[in-house]
Amino acid sequence: MSEDPTPARTAVVLGGSHAGMLAAAALSGLAERVVVVERDVLPDGPAPRKGLPQAHHAHMLWSGGVRAVAELLPGAVEALREAGARRNPVTTDMVVMGARGWFRRWPESHHVILAGRDLLDATVRAQVLADRRVELLDGTEVLGLEGGARAVTGVRIREKGRDGSGERVLRAGLVVDATGRGSRASHWLTDLGLPAVERREVDSGLAYASRLYLAPEQARSGYPIVNVQPDPRDGRPGRAGFLLPIENGRWIVTLNGSRGGEPSAEADDFVRFAREELRHPVIGELLERAEPLTDVSYTRATRNRRHFYERMPLWPENFAVLGDALAAFNPLYGHGLAVGAQSAVLLRDVVRRHGWGAAGLSRRIQRAVARPAVAAWDLAVGQDVFYPGATEHGPTLRDRMLAAYVGRLMLTATGNGRIARRVTDVTSLERGPEVLLAPSVLVAAAVGPLKPALAGPPLTGDELKRAGLQ
Questions:
Q1: If you placed Cys at 262, which of 48, 97, 257, 337 could pair as Cys (CB 3.0 to 4.6 Å)?
Q2: Which of 240, 247, 268, 289 is nearest to 96 (CA)?
Q3: Is 467 in contact with 216 (CB distance < 8 Å)?
């Protein structure tokens, strides 16, 4: 095995997807050299790649994540918009049926960026790799960590297509694992002699089916998000659907269902499921007038999984884990991209504050990046834990009490714009859930909605006409 001599102020980022590239941007200028190691050979532009099958499904970047991306990569959000990404105000351009009814389209409180995952990744990647301090080693496999229980000193890598003699050590003063759901970090750490990490999984059993459509000609710009959510109170499998307007006049549509209510992977059944199995047929009705562009992409990789690295009794210097490698969420809630971006900002801030190579730096990083993961985890698990079979013992008393309060808040938000704003403060990951416990919010939840329930989806006459529904 040959050794690659690199200076102590080298950062190695494992994983070249969204979180990995943003971590590289965060460390650029703090390290003398940043090396991104990626198993796939990355395309030059917005194109699919083998290691990112989830790219075929709907993605959104909540405003908390948009702000983080803009802070790390000035101009990146504008580049996304120029490439066709959509900026949709929340909840002004959202037609959402929640568990407690249709939400009104209140004045803008936050926003989301909508784009195909390939476009999002390619735009961020181009911005990061334009920095000459960042190097890309793609087509390269990570074999494990170098070092011991006290400190990580680098990674063992192998370029694809080579035999064992092509293995080498990439030395580093900091290694960041951003390899996603498939992360091997917990195994690498035990190989170094550290104890097993505490881990929790909550699996709602959701299966996802997604398809790309060309919107009707008059609905190819300025169309709202359409979302039909399940009602966990009805005792039936949870079925939901998202229609997101993205670049080039297209809609990406994701349908999902929990155990016993899964959508089919068959193209001929996609519209039927949207029209007949969801709580309202509006998405199916819209799709009947749109042109399918792809087959159906299908996945069951939707479980919530969290590693509590911040609780480890021992933690090695020079190593950190973030993004989906730290906590992976049910994609139904759309928080993975924003959490990855916010974690990269915190990575940068901790290194700036304490200094490169400071004693205990990695432990501080790990505790910091856990914060946005905790917020998104509570949002996802607080709902998923109620699906049959999601956990071994079912929801706890705390889970039930929290869900009852959140349900009351959601009902209130259907007819109270101020409470809708507080809810989106949290779902956008711009504020913590403690804002939902403010006295004024508690009183509003007790009072309930101030306006009567809507009878149907709040699409305007113009939107119905442009989509061919009127």
A1: 257
A2: 240
A3: yes
Q: Residue 286 corresponds to which tokens in the numbers above?
A: 């819209």
Mean pLDDT, residues 237-251 taken together: 94
CB 112 within 8 A of CB 93: no
Q: Report the topology of domain 88-113+204-301.
A: D-Amino Acid Oxidase; Chain A, domain 2 (3.30.9)
**Other residues' Cβ atoms within 10 Å of the Cβ of residue 232:** 19
**Could you give the residue ranges of the DSSP H alpha helices within 306-436?**
336-354, 361-384, 397-413, 417-427
- For 124, phi and psi rounded to 5 degrees? -65, -45
| Helix (H) and strand (E) counts in the chain | 13, 23
Q: Which of 119, 127, 106, 192 is nearest to 419 (CA)?
A: 106
pLDDT mean across residues, the chain: 92
On whether the pTM is more than 0.90, the answer is yes
Is residue 192 within 8 A of residue 149, CB to CB? The reply is yes
User: What is the domain partition of the chain in residue ranges?
Assistant: 2-59+117-201+303-380, 88-113+204-301
Tell me the pLDDT band of 142, cut-offs 50, 70 and 90. very high
**What confidence tier does 4 reach under pLDDT thresholds 50, 70, 90?**
low
Closest CA to 199 of 216, 213, 185, 210: 185
CATH superfamily of the 2-59+117-201+303-380 domain: FAD/NAD(P)-binding domain (3.50.50.60)
How much is the average pLDDT of 385-414? 83
Looking at per-residue confidence, does 211 or 432 come out higher?
211
Q: What is the pLDDT of residue 318?
A: 97
